[in-house]
Amino acid sequence: MAYVAVKGGEQAIQNAEALLKTKRRGDPNVPELSLAQIKQQMQLAVDRVMAEGSLYDPDLAALAIKQAWGDLVEATFLLRAYRTTLPRLYYSQPLDTNRMTAQRRISAIFKDAPGGQKLGPTFDYIHRLLDFKLAAEDNHFTCSSQAANSDHEFIPRATSTLVQEGLLSTPAPSHSDGASPPYDITRQPLETPVGRDARLQNLTRADEGFLLSMAYSTQRGYGTNHPFAGEVRMGEVEVVICPDELGFEVAIADITITEVQMVNQFAGSKNNAPKFTQGYGLTFGYNERKAMAMALVDRALQAKDLDETMSGPAQDEEFVLYHSDNVEAQGFVQHLKLPHYIDFQSELNLVRKLRQEYDQHHGSDPVAPPDSGADSTAETDQDSFV
User: Fold this and answer.
1) In what order do the strands lie in the sheet with 228-241?
2) What whole-number distance in Å separates Cα of residue 61 and Cα of residue 38?
3) Which helix (DSSP H) or strand (DSSP E) does residue 279 occupy?
4) Domain assignment present for 92
5) Which end of the chain is less packed: N or C, by CB atoms within 10 Å?
6) Can the peptide bond before residue 313 be classed as cis, meaning omega within 30 degrees of 0?
7) What end-to-end distance do the CA atoms of the chain give, in Å?
8) Per-residue CA distances from 145 to 131, 134, 148, 212 (Å)
9) For the chain, what is the largest distance between any 2 Cα atoms, rounded to a whole number of angstroms?
10) What is the pLDDT of residues 239-276, one digit of tens each?
């Protein structure tokens, strides 16, 4: 069978786009999914798209999910593409997560952590069984008023006691003098080795599945991590800017974030007292699994700074950072669907020539190429590709 071009032109492409819109809409007799429904009832998907799209806007993330037919990687791509059209007016001040109004806060290392445990909304304590009541029509559930977060009590960090005792090390900041601005991964190309500011920016918008696999690998022996969940918290924090024209700080929004501190095995040497080390994760929205995986990978990437043996892929900065971006990764993979007729024809001719030489050397009868219009593979007009 010959490798031939599929013709159709611009009309075929327009028809494919129309078909996509029809399939995305589904049965017109079924009510259309509204952006409010996506934002309210698919909040975890919205939060993931905001985190990996580097743009905190639940309305736009919901729109991207609807437009992308539920494909969260495609939705992330749409959100990032839109973000590039927006002007950069200010840089915000560092988030003060110590003043987070927590909806959820747990620690796996202290039973009686300062401020107590606050379970919040979580899948951790439910049975993984399908709830067929959710499939019923007009199914309404009421929640207890106690579930609402009405208090604004700031909860101290569970790891603060370890810091006070000098038992928990803190990674050195990328800019010790505080004078130079942080690395902006949305505007500057990534070149390894990178500072920790660029590393954390990369990880916070990295693909959740990739980070999860890397984090899992460190627990299976591909690395030296033995992690404990020092603290996992989710809640609202203020975003503050300090415009030059005003000269003072202004709070412009409250956003939901998830923050994780992982406490890892202690390290010490002849010249350094033993201390626990830590990894850090922070994402937009309620994104606990992603933030935990991020913290584990952040700790693994500190291996070089801590003079640890590099024994796993999660400790390889270049491998992790360059392959964690799902938008870039899907672009490289999906570009293989574009026309490659000329490339394949050259490869085909080379293999036929090598096969002919092989058959002559081994005394076999050469296989004649089929007369099926192989020259048509020289098609180069990409508009004819469907």
Assistant:
1) 101-106, 228-241, 250-267, 275-284
2) 9
3) strand 275-284
4) no
5) N
6) no
7) 19
8) 23, 21, 6, 34
9) 86
10) 999 998 998 999 999 999 999 999 987 767 777 788 89
Beta strands in the chain (DSSP E): 101-106, 228-241, 250-267, 275-284
Q: What token pair was written down for 334?
A: 């999906």
Same domain, 329 and 345: no
Q: Within this chain, do residues 298 and 357 fall inside the same structural domain, yes or no?
A: no
Q: Give the pLDDT score at 165.
A: 87
Q: 75: domain range?
A: 9-83
Considering only CA atoms, which of 263, 206, 192 is closest in space to residue 231?
263
DSSP SS3 for 245: coil
Count of domains for the chain = 3
* 252/105 same-domain check: yes
- Note whether 45 and 73 are within 8 A (CB): no
Q: What are the C-alpha distances in Å from 382 to residues 10, 64, 165, 220, 374?
A: 10, 27, 65, 46, 18
What is the structure's pLDDT at 140? 54
Tell me: do 169 and 48 sit in the same domain.
Answer: no
Average pLDDT (364-381) is 55
Q: Flag whether pLDDT at 146 surpasses 50.
A: no
Residues 283 and 173 both lie in one domain? yes
Determine the Cα–Cα distance for residues 386 and 382; give it in Å rounded to an integer: 9
Do residues 240 and 156 share a domain? yes
**Reported confidence tier of residue 370, pLDDT bands at 50, 70, 90:** low
